[in-house]
Write a structure and sequence with these properties.
single chain; about 100 residues; mainly alpha; elongated
Length: about 100
């Protein structure tokens, strides 16, 4: 059954295109790709498209340094790892009992 708002819904679906809809394709030499990967690593960026877009539009990438946040993230991962170990032991003991 087709809804009464079919034309509106059809237009709405067309508008749900990703934010970046225009693709630009660039080719690099292998040594240039290596340089690009090294610069991405220095900047701490993993998404190549985002890095290239930022560099093309602004010419620089700002790397915020928050040592306190990095420490919180490290502690969070340790705590979650410990929690997972407790859960695993709990599940093993319930199966054995």
């Amino acid at each position: 059954m087709i809804s009464k708002n079919y034309k509106f819904e059809k237009k709405w679906r067309k508008r749900k295109v990703k934010e970046y809809s225009k693709g630009i394709y660039v080719k690099f030499k292998p040594e240039e790709v290596e340089i690009l990967h090294n610069r991405m690593k220095e900047a701490g960026v993993q998404n190549m498209s985002a890095y290239i877009r930022k560099m093309a539009l602004n010419g620089y990438v700002i790397i915020p340094e928050w040592p306190d946040l990095n420490q919180v993230i490290s502690l969070h991962s340790r705590i979650s790892n410990n929690l997972n170990q407790y859960a695993k032991i709990s599940i093993e003991r319930k199966v054995a009992a």
